[in-house]
Amino acid sequence: MGAGTEPGGSSRSDEEWERFLRESVAGAADAPKEPSARARDVAKRLRAQPDRGPEGWRSYTPARPKRRTGWYVVGLLAALVLLVVALAPGRVVDLFAGDDRDSTVEAGQPAEAGQRPTMDEPFRGSPAASWASGAAGITVPEAQAVGWMSAAEVERALARSRDFLVASGLDRGVLRGERPEKAIALINPKQKDVQDFLTTAFRSPSEKNDPLLLFSRFQPSRTRLVGDVVKTRGGLTYREGERGALQVTADVTFVYPVTRADAGGDDEIVRTIVRRELVLSWDDPDKVITEPGTFSIVSNKYDMTNGGCGAPTGYFTPPFGTDRRADEAGTEVDPYDRSAPFRRGGSSGDECARATRS
Prior knowledge:
Blueprint: H1 14-26, H2 37-48, H3 69-87, H4 89-95, E1 132-133, E2 138-139, H5 151-169, H6 172-175, H7 181-184, H8 192-201, E3 223-225, E4 231-240, E5 246-260, E6 270-282, E7 296-305, H9 322-327, E8 331-333, E9 353-355
Parallel strand pairs: 2-4, 8-9
Antiparallel strand pairs: 1-4, 3-5, 4-5, 5-6, 6-7
């Protein structure tokens, strides 16, 4: 085989051989190169993996989305809540009722038939439905020594302060118009201005001397309570007052369901709502003339709705029927908003108010 002769007998020219020899020495531009160690390592790993199709070395593969089980649970719970709201809206309202401001239907709007109060359920449709009953709704703080009193004496004074609230606002006889003897017995008999008030208020009620300033009373010939329960919310606080006295402040709301005295089983039910603030002073007998086991009244306030308007009679006079519609001309107030400041309170016409909720 001569120089320049390829297998099969073909020959190359001298110029082609010369170019071939030069390129062999310099290296052809497209001649294959030895792969790097890194490339060989990558190729080895790729051959070891199962074939998933072409994939770039630095290409981004998004992570496989996880099953969002949590959202399915949230959706299921939301559906259950909507079902409960549809079947028992009153219960849901009660569940989320707060201390100072509860949510329910407006009293000025027509209530659903299922939310109207009945003789068996006089608090139906009211924020008070979830409140405690009677004395249980009046909270008493833990007692500590204050001023001239030891912790044990403060505890007794707080208990008697609550006894006054029970005797003046929850006693069944007092609510039926009887004289509040038990409550009066807890008031310092040496406090002349209060004793003069008590003497006058029950004999000749007036705006200045109205027994409703301290006591809740309904005229039995006109109004009767529905059921045996009065709903309450509020409590006592205390601090040191003047001359080292124990000063107790009570802020309590009472809700009384009532109907006409001659009502039948289906008659209209009205809820009279009364919020009272009383400041009582348990004085040091060495510094103030007082009787043991009694307090002096420092101040009192009360707001009332659905209790009647006009000249004081010494009794709450809840409006029924046409009287109720006439009272709707008064200023609107939310009697369940316990964060609101007290109005003047009372029964005179310019102080009458219409409850937005009852």
